[in-house]
Write a structure and sequence with these properties.
The chain is α/β, with parallel strands linked by helices. It has 8 helices and 9 strands. The protein has a 7-stranded mixed β-sheet with strand order 5-4-3-6-7-8-9. β6, α8 and β7 form a beta-alpha-beta unit. α2 runs antiparallel to α3 and α3 packs across α6. The radius of gyration is 18 Å and the shape is globular. The structure holds S-adenosyl-L-homocysteine.
Length: about 260
């Protein structure tokens, strides 16, 4: 199937509503040209970076065809350019953090394989880009970010885009978010030294946790699937990856970047 053949998800397209919101065009004509260049770059990104590399879940392809990645970068000196926003790599978002590479967002979301009526937990809101992709697929997204500035920016951005099925929290997501548990899926967008026990405990039976685990420079992306009882878990390695550290009680300790459990 070509990307153009993908049937749209049961959620209505938000694209119409997103046009023009929050931008200050020099003229309507230049705005239209700009939107067109982003849309073209997004279509090519979905085809060349995602579909061609094996991302086949139509819900993921459809969601990533809709979410305007250009709205998730700061664009400090003027506007972001389509070639930068949709390039095949991560983007710096300030405060030492990054907006994940499109392929990684797609691969993680596909690996989560949540049902349409799912409740999912995301750890590491960052810009909120992956949050938006999840929110087009799942019924509810609960997301935790430790950096209050990033969290507030993401909340405002996603609200402007019209999302109303996302809950935000500022805090240590290595401990999960008990209030919404159990979750059908948990996606962690920062690298941990080990699989946080709290996260596994907050999964429903048959739920999946997607998490990068390894050293601070380099990790393996794992999928942990729970069995009928909480003690039965299956762990698969999906790919090699590189994420910023998960800093917290069940992640890395903030000051020294040493894994938990090494102290007295
Ligand atoms: N998915 C994001 C990528 C964010 S980068 C995006 O697409 O934009 C990882 C994020 O995890 C950073 O914003 C970082 O501040 C956050 N983070 C690190 N440790 C955390 C923790 N213990 N709890 C919640 N967020 C954490």
């Amino acid at each position: 199937a070509r990307v153009g053949d993908i049937e749209s998800s049961r959620r209505p397209s938000l694209l119409q509503r997103w046009r023009g919101v929050g931008s200050h065009p020099a003229s309507e004509q230049s705005e239209a040209r700009l939107i067109e260049s982003f849309e073209r770059a997004r279509t090519l990104m979905v085809r060349d970076q995602l579909h061609r590399r094996g991302i086949r879940d139509p819900r993921v392809l459809d969601a990533m065809s809709q979410v305007p990645r250009e709205r998730f970068t700061r664009g400090e000196n003027g506007r972001p350019r389509a070639a930068d926003v949709y390039r095949d790599g991560a983007l710096p978002i300030g405060r030492g953090q990054t907006l994940s590479q499109p392929f990684i967002v797609a691969a993680m979301t596909q690996a989560l394989a949540v049902p349409d009526d799912a409740r999912v937990l995301e750890i590491g809101t960052g810009t909120g880009y992956n949050t938006a992709v999840l929110a087009l697929i799942a019924r509810e997204v609960w997301t935790v970010e430790r950096d209050a500035v990033l969290a507030e920016e993401a909340r405002a951005r996603l609200q402007n885009l019209g999302f109303s099925n996302i809950r935000f929290r500022v805090g240590d997501g290595s401990l999960g978010w008990k209030d919404g548990s159990p979750y059908d899926g948990i996606l962690v967008t920062a690298g941990a030294p080990d699989i946080p026990r709290s996260l596994v405990e907050q999964l429903s039976p048959g739920g999946r946790l997607i998490i990068p685990v390894g050293g601070s420079e380099h990790q393996r992306l794992l999928r942990v699937t729970t069995g009928p009882s909480p003690n039965q878990v299956e762990t698969e390695t999906l790919m090699e990856c590189r994420f910023v550290p998960l800093i917290g009680r069940e992640g890395w300790l903030g000051s020294e970047m040493s894994p938990r459990g090494e102290g007295p």
